Amino acid sequence: xxxxxxxxxxxxxxxxxxxxxxxxxxxxxxxxxxxxxxxxxxxxxxxxxxxxxxxxxxxxxxxxxxxxxxxxxxxxxxxxxxxxxxxxxxxxxxxxxxxxxxxxxxxxxxxxxxxxxxxxxxxxxxxxxxxxxxxxxxxxxxxxxxxxxxxxxxxxxxxxxxxxxxxxxxxxxxxxxxxxxxxxxxxxxxxxxxxxxxxxxxxxxxxxxxxxxxxxxxxxxxxxxxxxxxxxxxxxxxxxxxxxxxxxxxxxxxxxxxxxxxxxxxxxxxxxxxxxxxxxxxxxxxxxxxxxxxxxxxxxxxxxxxxxxxxx
Length: 312
What we know:
It is a single chain. This protein is of the alpha/beta class. The chain is 32% helix and 20% strand. The chain has helices at 15-30, 45-52, 87-101, 103-108, 125-145, 205-218, 230-236, 275-288, and strands at 35-39, 63-67, 70-78, 114-118, 149-150, 165-168, 178-182, 191-195, 198-202, 241-246, 295-299, 305-310. The strands form three sheets. Strands 1-2-3-10-11-12 form a six-stranded mixed β-sheet, sandwiched between helices. A four-stranded mixed β-sheet has the order 5-6-4-7. A hairpin with a 5-residue loop joins strand 11 (295-299) and strand 12 (305-310). Helix 3 (87-101) packs across helix 5. The longest helix is centred in the middle third of the chain and has 21 residues, at 125-145. The protein is elongated. It starts with 14 loop residues before the first helix and ends with a strand. Mean pLDDT is 83; it is low at 261-267.
């Protein structure tokens, strides 16, 4: 009987987790480390209960990786932006609407394409449509002028981070002439200060929201269940633990590619979580739960991977 030898099949029901772990694997491989996926304890419960002689529900991390021959048990968690639950659906609406409305502007563009940066819209349909109409007007102005155009009439106009903005762009695929990108509707406000221990980053109340999923993995008292977090349980078994912080809000799996259709571009990106801020969050979390975590990585909206915590 033929056997499926691809270990990544274990993530078939979790495409964002699979994407994150593949990116982590590629990142470590690029550093000269050998990486192999050994299993998925959360979905292979019976196997891992027998392997480690533990009760049901004790070892439930997302991935068992071998890195240079050493076993690592790594969990994946989403890092939500404050009040971000509505953003993915708003991105879909904007993508569908603007790709339809920008057809005329694209035809006017001297480069055959347009790059447009907008913010997701949460308002009523009439308010969203007014915003989209303003974007289309900017895009047509950019196409006619051949240069970037900002919405200087926006009451929140900031020349350093002006949205929306439209500019001519040369598409690599003529069938996809619009490059649509997204910026945060309310960027994280981070205060930076220099201390004897180095730069410190304060996210204010938003920091609690961003840090909550990290704490849930390390704690000895989860809010929902009252039990230990996944990585604490793994650490108590004497296992090396790691955490993947996934900041890709609104991520969608790529469409299937066939010979008759071009591959779809990656999902548009929300502004990234700065790695230094993630490192600050990890320092705070690990100081509260010492001895639980060995390493942590941030997967950002541009698919880059950054190590944000390491403990010998």
